Amino acid sequence: MQFSESWLRTLVDPKMTSDALSHMLTMSGLEVEEVEPVAPPFSNVVVARVVEVAKHPNADRLNVCQVDAGTGTLLNIVCGAPNVRAGLKVACAMAGAKLPPGDDGKSFEIKVGQLRGVESQGMLCSARELKLSEENAGLLELPDDAPVGQNFRDYYQLNDLKFTIKLTPNKADCLSVLGVAREVSALTGAPLRAPTYKAVEPNTDEKLPVKISAPDLCGRFSGRIIRGLNARAQTPDWMKRRLERSGQRPISALVDISNYVMLELGRPSHVFDLDKIHGGLDVRWGKPGESLKLLNGNTVEVDSWVGVIADDKEIESLAGIMGGDSTAVSLDTQNIYLEAAFWWPQAIQGRARRYNFSTDAAHRFERGVDYATTVEDIERITALIVEICGGKDTVVGPVDDHVVNLPQRKPVTVRTARAVKVIGVPLNDEQIADIFTRLNLQFRQEPGAFTVTPPSYRFDIEIEEDLIEEIARVYGFENIPALAPVAANTMRIAPENRRSLFAIRRQLADADYQEVVNFSFVEESWEADFAANANPIKLLNPIASQMSVMRSSLVGSLVANVRYNLNRKLNRVRVFEIGAVYLRNAATQDGALTVAGYDQPKRVAAMAYGQVAEEQWGLPSRNVDYFDIKADLEALFAPKKLSFAKAEHPALHPGRSAQVLLEGTVIGFIGELHPRWQQKYDLPLAPVVFEVDASALQTRDIPAYEEISKFPAVTRDIAVVVKQSVSAQALLDTFIAEQKSNPACAIMQAIVLFDEYRGKGLENDEKSLAFRFTLQDTQTTLQDDKVDAAMTAFITAVEKMHGARLRT
Predict the structure, then answer these.
(1) Residue 241 three-state SS
(2) Which one, 280, 300, 600, 786, has the greatest CB density within 10 A?
(3) Where do runs of H (alpha helix) occur along 15-111?
């Protein structure tokens, strides 16, 4: 939105400087993006009158002019402009005047000099020479009533500023000078002087037949017939200046008046050439196959999504966007139909962008234009048209106002206590009442509450927070103190037995994994494939159709990360993610960090694909396997000891997957991706993945002192034969249980499985497992009898529990 400061000050004139006005508008939410002068600096240019024009004796294209510049004597000025003539009022640069810089950036100074032997005592100026426009058709002609001798900058109001404000979409009421003036009046208390005019009395009963076939497109349609106009009349200079300083190019009187009122009041209107309308008008939705040539020369196809104004023969206008070429006014137009309507914002939104252009009308209508003032705005336009283009034969018809479907303004209640809490300022009812009065918001007051009925030009007031925003804007954001939080802050030391997620991230990164961050909402098929979740938590309003459910596992997202990298020619991928998953749990109650019916635990997951290490000469090339990732997981939990139990998981290979247990509690899973999903998701190799509860990983034991033995350790190896169905972990668990329950076995410090054998000397359903025990006493050197007693107890325990026997 662009306008001149002088125009704004004709409606409201606060006693403040231009800089202060700009700052105030910005702080109220109307961001002033730019303030620039309407003309570059120049001096000693006055209004002058050409008294006499004579041919230059030595040049065919030059004239010698006698010019009255208000000095008491006539100036002799040589001029080559084609439109110079006696009696013309012009801008005259006196001797010593400094004109705007040229292309070289230097100011141009006017001096008394000789032009082809004739002395010239100044220069008559064009608009281009004064940098007022790019037109160079001749001298800048001024009205006959321009006062001779007056400073041209004062006469042409060139000490004015152009304001460009950047409006948010909700402030459609400020897309006019009147709207900005209302804001300034409310913010400063300066009186508002709305534009005044005298309504033109109709002198005919003629009306154009109008039918509104689409009430959901057009809620109100007002129009009138005006005959006997002179479309060639000149647009007044004052109107041209205001249009130009608002970014509009003057075209013709009828078009300029329509644009002027749009900028002044915020109401886009349209002027039809009445003689080009066939029959009456029908406001309706378009029909497939229809087309329209627009004023900009483009021909567009319309359908049932686009509103149109049509006559009995063809479409004449895109509703609320742009008029058609067939009924456009021209300099020969004598009879017009003037239209002003209320178009529903949702019926205009997106239509102009569909055709890859935008218009001032569409920009306003899709945000909302006052539906209550169509008749008043038509009267304003009519008064200007009759004043500028009218004559003794001008005939004005009555305003034909069709009201079919207007918005219902629902009252909005705001509580004083709520406003105080949100804004953080101790406001009272009297202050809020004053603010609403200044904003011209009609309200009903109760102790501690206000019920406000939004005016017809405000489409942005629908909920309590909208009114709180208005209170804060007018109160002044700068007046809201910047206070530190009133709650006492205490620096709390993190508990020693809990490590942070950041530390876990660092440890995984040190293990050559790269962190990824994925959306918490995923494809529904991922939940079925990787979690066998037939009832996922569905989103009511997903950002994309394929991201429709909340994840209950991180595996699907990691598979997508691996595929993304493989598609970009990376053949080794190691990624991890720490994030929340979402599970149904009817027992969960609402709380500070919980939502009834749902659990949101954090998980840590990692996936490795391709070679176990970057290609190098020191290691043979091989693909990562289950045991590589198992080692990484054990290192992540160290010094805690994990155990693993064979298990099936919907995402994992049935023979190469396991549950992860910590102190007997299942905390996650580990394994190779299932061949079915490897094939479905186009993975040449099977990645290995683990996923565990973040809370289990964060919990750690507090370090405790243990005496270091000064005596040598003893190692013993045993090999036991068991059925192939007996897992090595089961034997390890038995050994550890015996250590804890049997005092004779307490000297065991460590135990590892170092060999597995199947084959000759064993039955087909048997296997041999070899374990190495490390035994040590902190008080004395171990004797053979104590070692033998401990080993016998261990062997007896596995014989009893698993039917094991010593291998011979």
Answers:
(1) helix
(2) 300
(3) 18-27
